[in-house]
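Recap quiz, item 2
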Amino acid sequence: MGKGERTRDRIIGKAMALASRDGFDGVTIGALAGQLRLSKSGLFAHFGSKEELQCSVLQHAAARFTSDVIEPALHTERGEARVRALFERWRKWLLRSTMPGGCVLVTASHEFDDKPGPQRDLIEDQMRRLLDTLARCAESAVRTGEFRADLDTHQFARDWYALMFGYHQLGRLFKERSNEAHLRNAFEQLVSAVRKTGQH
Amino acid sequence: MGKGERTRDRIIGKAMALASRDGFDGVTIGALAGQLRLSKSGLFAHFGSKEELQCSVLQHAAARFTSDVIEPALHTERGEARVRALFERWRKWLLRSTMPGGCVLVTASHEFDDKPGPQRDLIEDQMRRLLDTLARCAESAVRTGEFRADLDTHQFARDWYALMFGYHQLGRLFKERSNEAHLRNAFEQLVSAVRKTGQH
């Protein structure tokens, strides 16, 4: 990795931490320059604008989510096992985040949902891919005969997504130690409701 | 209502709209003074600080949520009917919000979850009361014999809350017309899983 790339990585790492705690609105060239002891013009050499910087953070976070959560799950056995593998990895990503303010993709979803622009397009695209992945995992469990043949995988994907987002928020706000156990119970209920009867 | 009160109401109304669309960080005395064509000193006469202004918006929104959603639901017949009444009113509040960026209580939950202070204390307290209300509604359905006697109402309240928060976010991000129908299906599944067997 060249010096330029290392600096770029350092900038994105710090920007992710800032976005996680204070939101993307706090990720400005000026704020970062101060925190990293770099000149503003040095930062501008890497990112031409606040928008480009925020988009780079989003792409970086999405790539990490894909490699840490999605890809390993897609390499496990198809069917319910894959649904469970994805859940386990996603749960750890969301509830045991090393970022100071939790998952920046969740932060971005809330912050940009009312702000048209490339950041909103990026996060909407990422989250739509995620919904598609969730639905495809459920489909694979329908094909193995573990989930009901008439399962609405579109609905299942949204219920699952809502559960994860909702429990992430419960965790951030209440900091209850039982939060992870509650999410696990909720997920078991979601899965048991779509299993073929007799497989409970 | 005196002139002072009317002005105060006008300020809070505008501040709520601002918070809904741009987040609470955008609710500053300066920004509001510009939008309302009031002097900064005039605004300071009503709210001594940005913090006080943000807390007033939170209290106002919470009071409206209580009178529009909670109180009418608590006046319906106890049991499953009350759970359903609360769901219907809450669903409308969340998904058909007249606020430009959706529910400000949701916005505040995300924005203040990593920021200790009176705003965070206020929103945490409001959301904890809401969880308690959800659990009490479920308890009333246990007492009427509609919900299972061994129901964990603490878990049920959190599952329900997560569902509402998650679907609110799905609605804001994807703007799918099917979102409300999906939330309704998810709620039906949540309720049918806790009903006494044979009452499906």
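Chain B has a mean pLDDT of 93.
The longest helix of chain B spans residues 118-143.
End of item.
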